[in-house]
């Protein structure tokens, strides 16, 4: 008989308060924290990712933070491999893992599995697709996707550049549409884990206010100086995932391509705010999609979540 081991998944959009809540639970019980965040994996990217400070990490240790440089990539498949290894280690220590973050693709991969048919990224093919976009425009690249994979072409907008690149990359490598390969993957992994899924989904107006406050704090404590340091230390190419992270993309464009006037600074800050709100909107969409497939407890306020989870695990 399989002994299913409890795993707590604490999800939510950016700035919803999930990390603070996970740290409170860590203090009250026999837990270990695993970060589920595609930006927190990068070293030196601290302020713009709202990464827990060094002091906070000492008090509330998180796995899967600062594990690669901004010049490297980290896939959902690598996350699943790392997370499962850590979950097993934590259970052997007699503790319960809390997976906390807002990268819903990682949660989906953990809950549902990844298709064995999907190949790893190919830098050469990606470069070819990006060159086509530079020469002909993203509308032409999107039209190519519509031709080879109509379902993906309908699903992705012209602005969904990374998804378009990935879909075309998979087609060029396998000769088959990515939507077809994804449909063949198992809907539920045969895991020995028992996932307990919790989602913080505050009111949009409240969340937008929290996002605005967080970004203001980031600018005040030196986010732009951090981006300048990263650009200088790594000579960061703009096509890497780290450089495309929300906030960093807008800051890099401002530092590289503007006269750095106060007017352009304000424009850049507005763009970063808009991009962060759009990220939160996508995270809500992902969460609703996951809710359709898996059992979830949803909290509309942090206070409700805090009270309920303390009663369950405190």
From TrEMBL:
Tell me the Gene Ontology biological-process terms attached to this UniProt entry: tRNA modification
Which keywords appear in this protein's UniProt record, sorted alphabetically?
Answer: ATP-binding, Magnesium, Nucleotide-binding, Transferase, tRNA processing
This entry's Enzyme Commission designation comes to: 2.5.1.75
The cross-references to InterPro entries, in alphabetical order and at most eight, read: Dimethylallyltransferase, IPT, P-loop_NTPase
Q: Magnesium as a keyword?
A: yes
Question: Site annotated as Interaction with substrate tRNA: where?
Answer: 103, 126
**Pfam families per the UniProt record, alphabetical:** IPPT
GO molecular function list: ATP binding; tRNA dimethylallyltransferase activity
For the ligand (substrate), the binding residues are: 14-19
Q: Does the keyword Transport apply?
A: no
Q: Where is this region: Interaction with substrate tRNA?
A: 37-40, 162-166
Annotated ATP binding sites: 12-19
Cofactor(s) needed by this chain: Mg(2+)
Listed under catalytic activity are: adenosine(37) in tRNA + dimethylallyl diphosphate = N(6)-dimethylallyladenosine(37) in tRNA + diphosphate
* Gene3D superfamilies for the chain: 1.10.20.140, P-loop containing nucleotide triphosphate hydrolases (3.40.50.300)
Q: Function, please?
A: Catalyzes the transfer of a dimethylallyl group onto the adenine at position 37 in tRNAs that read codons beginning with uridine, leading to the formation of N6-(dimethylallyl)adenosine (i(6)A).
Self-association and partners: Monomer.
Regarding protein family, the annotation reads: Belongs to the IPP transferase family.
Protein name, please? tRNA dimethylallyltransferase
């Amino acid at each position: 008989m399989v002994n299913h081991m409890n795993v707590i998944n604490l999800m939510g959009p950016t700035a919803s308060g999930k990390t603070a809540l996970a740290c409170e639970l860590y203090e009250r019980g026999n837990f270990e924290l695993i970060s589920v965040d595609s930006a927190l994996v990068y070293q030196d990217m601290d302020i713009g990712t709202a990464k827990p400070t060094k002091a906070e990490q000492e008090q509330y240790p998180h796995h899967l933070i600062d594990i690669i440089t901004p010049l490297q990539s980290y896939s959902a498949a690598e996350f699943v491999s790392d997370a499962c290894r850590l979950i097993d280690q934590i259970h052997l220590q007699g503790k319960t893992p809390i997976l906390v973050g807002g990268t819903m693709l990682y949660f989906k991969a953990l809950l549902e599995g990844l298709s064995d048919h999907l190949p790893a990224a190919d830098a050469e093919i990606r470069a070819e697709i990006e060159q086509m976009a530079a020469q002909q425009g993203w509308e032409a690249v999107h039209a190519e996707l519509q031709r080879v994979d109509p379902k993906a072409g309908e699903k992705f907008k012209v602005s969904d550049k990374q998804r378009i690149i990935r879909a075309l990359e998979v087609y060029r490598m396998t000769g088959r549409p990515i939507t077809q390969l994804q449909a063949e993957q198992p809907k539920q992994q045969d895991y020995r884990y028992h996932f307990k899924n919790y989602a913080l989904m505050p009111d949009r107006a409240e969340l937008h206010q929290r996002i605005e406050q967080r970004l203001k704090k980031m600018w005040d404590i030196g986010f732009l100086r951090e981006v300048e340091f990263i650009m200088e230390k790594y000579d960061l190419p703009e096509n890497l995932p780290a450089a495309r992270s929300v906030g960093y993309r807008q800051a890099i464009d401002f530092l590289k391509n503007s006269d750095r006037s106060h007017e352009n600074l304000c424009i850049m800050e507005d763009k970063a705010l808009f991009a962060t709100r759009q990220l939160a909107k996508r995270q809500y969409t992902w969460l609703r999609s996951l809710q359709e497939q898996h059992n979830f407890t949803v909290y509309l306020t942090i206070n409700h979540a805090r009270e309920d989870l303390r009663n369950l695990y405190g």
